[in-house]
Amino acid sequence: MSSDVLTKSNYQELMQNPRVYLTDPDLQKFQVEKDPNGIPRVRSGGLALTYQLFDSNKKLALRCFHKVSPRREQHYSAISSFLSSHPSSLFVRTAYQPHGILYKGGYFPITIMDWIEGDTLGTFVFKNFNNKKVMSELTDKFLKLVNELIHLQVGHGDLSHSNLMVTKGNLILIDYDGMYVPKLTGNLSVELGNRSFQHPGRSEKDFGPEIDRFSAIVIYLALKSISISPTIYQTYGTGREGLLFDQS
Predict the structure, then answer these.
(1) With 118 labelled, which of 3, 126, 134, 149 sits at a CA distance of 20 to 30 A?
(2) Over the stretch 194-243, which tens digit does the pLDDT of each residue have?
(3) Distance, CA of 11 to CA of 35 (rounded, Å)
(4) Predicted model pTM
(5) How many whole angstroms from its chain centre is CA 128?
């Protein structure tokens, strides 16, 4: 039986030698990306830590959970099944391994997905806010993404500038911890998302195909405003958690 979660320091320790602790023989062949000091490079998220695994041909994103979620296995099983049966350019195929790590006698879950090269939406806007043409095209692409989510009847659950990647001119969603798919109807939300992009009244009971409505409006208004008047980003965007709007 899997235990709950490990601490960041535990993960940093075991990722020094992942082939010893990862239970999947295929993953044991990969190396972990390290910083200039030889320490595993980690990207921190609300529920998980992300590491890059690589070999000569491929890069993978390994996500290790640092917060407890009693429905995680059910959640990711439903998501993985949905993504396999509804392929879309918006998503990256995700594999959930409930016994992915064996550490000090206990098993701990991981998810594996292809590594996405590119900028987060927040970084891309920071680099391109002065280019009205690029920002206008980005706004249109975001609107198409939202319409595709509506068509699929799914909700990301944490739609924000850090969970959207811009790669080769396309938008891709990452981090599916709070995602809603039809098989999860009747469940409670496992997270409430980045508060700078969420309705202040959202609770764990708000979990369905419409959970992205408010955050989609917030992002669309920000992108559209910047595409019309780039200086608004300099005044209200840079150095803040949101694109233009924050929780307050």
Answers:
(1) 149
(2) 899 999 999 999 999 999 999 999 999 999 999 999 999 999 886 677 78
(3) 15
(4) 0.86
(5) 22
